[in-house]
Amino acid sequence: MVSWFAGIFYLPRLFVYHEESDSLEVKNQLSIMEKNLFKFITPLGILALIFGIMMGLLSSNWSEFFTQDWIVVKIFVVALLASYQLMCRKIMQELLADDHHWTGFKLRVFNEAPVILLLLGIIAAVFKF
Fold it and tell me: Of 3, 22, 95, 101, which sits 20 to 30 A from 58 (CA to CA)?
């Protein structure tokens, strides 16, 4: 989970550098880095999902486990993170084709979304509301 988050934090930062660079050589290098990072974090996200589901299924009462409010919030956070990663893939493709509407500022704001999701997941796990 930590490695997946690290990649999700870094990928949009590469997008900012990509968008704000004037050098075609730098943009090409950033495209390679973005693609490699995406390919690296995708299996990590899948593993996080698998282990999270296994943790619930291996609990003594899995139906009760998955109906706890804090677990529902964490599942929602993970679904949003998976959607966020898919959105990153779309942005990556748009940047590669140089056919996008993103500015450096918009990408910086987009880069902050996982922080909010991380905090929400941590609060749900710590306070188990």
Answer: 3
Q: How many CB atoms lie within 10 A of CB 52?
A: 15
Domains held by the chain: number? 1
pTM, whole model, 2 decimals? Answer: 0.90
87-95: Cβ within 8 A, 24+ apart = 88/8, 88/11, 88/12, 88/15, 88/38, 89/38, 91/12, 91/15, 92/11, 92/15, 92/31, 92/34, 92/35, 92/38, 95/15, 95/18, 95/19, 95/27, 95/31, 95/34
DSSP letters for 86-112:
HHHHHHHHHHHHT-----HHHHHHHHT
Distance, in Å, from the CA atom of 1 to the CA atom of 52, rounded to the nearest integer, reads: 9
**pLDDT tens digits for 75-122?**
999 999 999 999 999 999 999 998 999 999 999 999 999 999 999 999
pLDDT in tens, 36-53: 999 999 999 999 999 989
